[in-house]
Amino acid sequence: MEHSDEEKLLRMKDRYHNIPVPDAARVSLAAGIERAKKEKRRIQMMKMTKRTGITAAAAMAAIVIMANASPVTANAMEEIPVLGAIAKVVTFRTFEDANNNYEAKIDIPKVSINEKDNVKVNRSIEEYANQLIAEYEKQVAGDQAGDGHYSVTSSYDVVTDNDKYLSLRINTTVVMASGAESVKIFTIDKETGNVVSLKDLMKDKADYITAISDNIKKQMEEQMAADDSKMYFYNTGEDSVDEFKQITGDESFYFNANGEIVIAFDEYEVAPGYMGAVEFTIPKDVTGF
């Protein structure tokens, strides 16, 4: 009985496998099989990509950990070229004093490029700050203010930070009866690490002093014509030694967001004190930059 049932099942299985499959069904089945194969390959590829991404992320994490943990590795990584040097400016120290009628607060910044302190520039910045401090201490020692008040405030801000240049602006205000604002800008070539003067920048431009000076005079005239409250030491009708004649090439400058050179003058340098420290943006067709 059991043997007969088993033979019957085998015959049924044979008949099932011998059933003719219609052509349309065969094509549809083949297409389904091909889709299944493609889907399987796609899933495998996604898994592979995911594993690769995880491996890359792990490798990057390992590099970061090694750089933070090992000075040797960090130093080696500093030699890897980057697109545009990374500059950082922090407060190195602050000179503060309050003595009767005298007070001072002078922030002294420090510049680093690609995590390396710029020793040459920082020395120049500190020398400039020390001059401010020495003048303040001279005033205190001689009690120059008498019954009045004398104060010095000096702060800084970054006015340019592009791929090529970093410009650090130091603003200093001295108050003694009235105030006087001075500006010192250190424009640094990120590639060389050197402070660049206007003379250095324009050394290949013939007669740049005349071209820039004439443009500044034109701006002065236009501003005074448009606004009666503005006044510059130019075409005043007075024969004065303060009359603006031309730049020297040693003026403080920086680049604005449009890549134009901006020249800064101290208070009283080219205009009356009420005008404060003034700036002039020089068009590119004048500078050639």
Automatic annotation (TrEMBL):
Segments forming domain Deacetylase PdaC: 97-172
Keyword presence, Repeat: no
Domain DUF3298: 199-284
Keywords: Membrane, Transmembrane, Transmembrane helix
Stored InterPro entries: DUF3298, PdaC, PdaC/RsiV-like_sf
Transmembrane segments: 48-67
UniProt xrefs under Gene3D superfamilies: Fervidobacterium nodosum Rt17-B1 like, Heat-shock cognate protein, ATPase
Protein name: DUF3298 domain-containing protein
Species whose genome carries this gene: Lacrimispora celerecrescens
